[in-house]
Amino acid sequence: MGKALLLFSGGLDSSSAAYYFAKKGLCFDCLFINYGQKSARMELRSGKIICEKLGKKLLIADIRKLRDLFTYDNEWLKPHEPIIHRNVVIVPLAIAFAKEKGYDEVIIASVKEDCEYETNRQEIIKALKGLGEILGVKVSTPFAGLPKSFLLKIGVSSGLDPSLTYSCLLGHTYHCGQCSQCVKRKEAFKDAKIEDKTKYLKLS
Question: Residue 38's domain is classified under what CATH number?
């Protein structure tokens, strides 16, 4: 059986995927990439907790200096997500790493709602899958057509405590409750009919 590499952020989606695949007995490691996003510190904190509970190796790529390159002419406004087309940057890195280290597959735990920051996402992912084929690494998006709430259900049924995950764009200790990711998080819990124990600074 081959080994997979799961792109991992410590959020609801990748954590749910990690628990699901662990329950299925899939052999995989997790890769966290700090590309300069403001939430990296809290994401990594959650990621370490999740991986420790699952007994999974957490690999960390620290490329945070990319933020400076992508925001050098915009000092007055520091975006939460410094790279709009971040998949174009981080997925090829994961594919190249997988090729070098003997992983057969790179798994992206994206869901139907993941289109806000990256236009032409479907075309981009298709191209990245083609890149993987060239290098002999399968690039999988097994949850791409599913709503966030459904993947949350899968994660919880596989043993995930979602309160351990982190989604907020601001990167503070507690979720802000108002950014786009917090809104999607709250909607996922509501749609899944699962109690949301997240501590939000603002509930609406």
Answer: 3.40.50.620
